[in-house]
Amino acid sequence: MEKVRLHSVDFATRSPPCPICLEDFEEPGVGVDQLLPRLPCSHYFHLHRIIPWLEKNNLCPVSRYPMPTD
């Protein structure tokens, strides 16, 4: 799973909230240097939300794109 810096993808102006928790990606006190995981289908999530999801499912919660398994 690739990780991208928040400021490098300009979430503050053009991205919807995290599809799992519906909270904004830029969290107060964290700043724009946080890393966000990007799935192969190009969807972004909070790391602490997507990891539990992927432990139970091997599909993207938005597109149902199958995730590679090891």
How would you characterize the overall build of this protein?
This protein has 70 residues and is α+β, with helices and mostly antiparallel strands. It has one domain: Herpes Virus-1 (2-Layer Sandwich). It has 2 helices and 2 strands, in the order E-H-E-H. Strands 1-2 form a two-stranded antiparallel ribbon. It is globular, with a radius of gyration of 12 Å. The model has no long low-confidence stretch (mean pLDDT 81). It is an enzyme of class 2 (transferase). Keywords: Acyltransferase, Ligase, Metal-binding, Transferase, Zinc, Zinc-finger. It catalyses: S-ubiquitinyl-[E2 ubiquitin-conjugating enzyme]-L-cysteine + [acceptor protein]-L-lysine = [E2 ubiquitin-conjugating enzyme]-L-cysteine + N(6)-ubiquitinyl-[acceptor protein]-L-lysine. Pfam families: zf-RING_2. InterPro entries: Znf_RING, Znf_RING/FYVE/PHD.
